[in-house]
Prior knowledge:
mainly alpha
Amino acid sequence: MSFDTFPMVSDADKESNPAIQLFGKRLFNDQSPIEFLVELLLIVTSSKRIGRATTDFTTPLPSPKDLSKWQVTEELMYSPKARLNLKLFAFIGASRLDSRHQTHREHYKDMVQGLRDKIRVAEAGGENDVLRTLQNLFLGFQGAGFGRTWCAQSFMPVCKGLLAGETIWNETAARREPPSDWDDVLSRLQIYFTMNKHRFLARGGEVLYLQMCIALKQKAKEIREWAESSGICLEPKEADPVYLHEELQRELDNLMGHCPQTVTDIAEFLDSGVESETSRTTDYTGTDPRLVAAGYCPADTWREGYLFAVDLLRLCQADLDVIERLQLLETACAMQVLRNLAAQSIRHCPTEHQTTWPGYRLAVSAPDERNSAVKRISRHTAKMVEKLIYRAIRCDDVELPTDQAEREKILKEADKRYAGKLFVGLAKRIGLLVPRRGAGVRFTLNEQLLRLLVVTTVPIGGRLTYDRFKELVEARHGLVFDGDGFTRASSWVDGSDQPVVGSGIDTWLQDMLDAAGLLIHLSDSCALVVNPAAKKGVES
Length: 540
């Protein structure tokens, strides 16, 4: 690679995939929005160490001292729990029948019997009622992986006890060399289970975490200069990485505490209190916790990482419902991935008609847009960003094989799963691109995206003029909504600086804000966008 990564990658670890070289290891099409968040929070809540010789730490982020001393050659290691017993208890009934191996069913029966023996019912009802209630409770937290084997599914990350690493059942190995029972499975764990494939928890959360770490290592002066020149308009305290680190450390530490502790206590009991050998075998190597090496991110994406850290802090500080906060955090992770792809692409493959930070403009149209000119420009920007990413993974900064056939094979795989198709697929999943199927995709917003933009752009409990709100969303995400913004988007696409649509094309945005209770009309020409969320611990 001809550009820096964080941590630094040795020649032996260099990837041949150009998208992984450019965007980090790795952003992958098979990872869903909720799995980006699950993996991010899994690292946040796990025990970690920097390099193999340092002391473990359990705080969400490295301390300021550890950040400052973090050598670029030292990789981040973390210790995720597998939680196989908990997943088996919750998900075996929701998994495919053909994926339930005989040893899984037998161990499930033993677990249920062991749990039944420990239940004491003081009032009316019986052990079976308690078991059904517990199964329904944890099945209700099913977050991702519907249709997969039970162990490859993930919980909604509502509390620390539900965060688990990826585990894949090796069905082929089990057919070739059938295990006799669950103890046999555990004794030959490496044969029957794989915990390092990263198929669904595909390292995207690791990339987001590392971006925050490298962002918080930057000097305050550099942050302030960039914030002023880019127009992102951070709060004075937010432009100080020391303050941002301190606040984010506290908020991330408290994030998993919004769900009652009882849920985590029951989850821990189900995973290791009824039968402990499984968790001991999956979570430890000998007497030491099992360590997973995180990947890496491009060093020059610290700007996107800093914006993401600010977004997370604002979402954590707002007094939101537990589920609403998780949904917004999930969408924020997806938006960060999209921002990474676009900003990093334009950084290493500037367009002919370069514009100001973030370097691209995405024209957003109404969900039910009827204006053909508006739809056309929105579609042009969608095609342009995909073309930009396509060109970026072929730029001079990326190392590609000299053999033409091998080169084309690698580029095809990158296009399909790690680059342009990833941008389009993820944007469709969160509703930023429509339609989900068919040609002519264009940018739009849904209520979830609108809510995220307001909570992360407007100060908590505060307000901004409508025009100022649009300016900040454009600076932070490259999204434009009105006639002037569409002109800038058109200029980015083809160099045209002539007005391309009339005025009033963003009335739909005002209507959406108004319908959501996020807009105050002062006059026909002036309105305020408000963030009704109160700050946690403060009376509204």
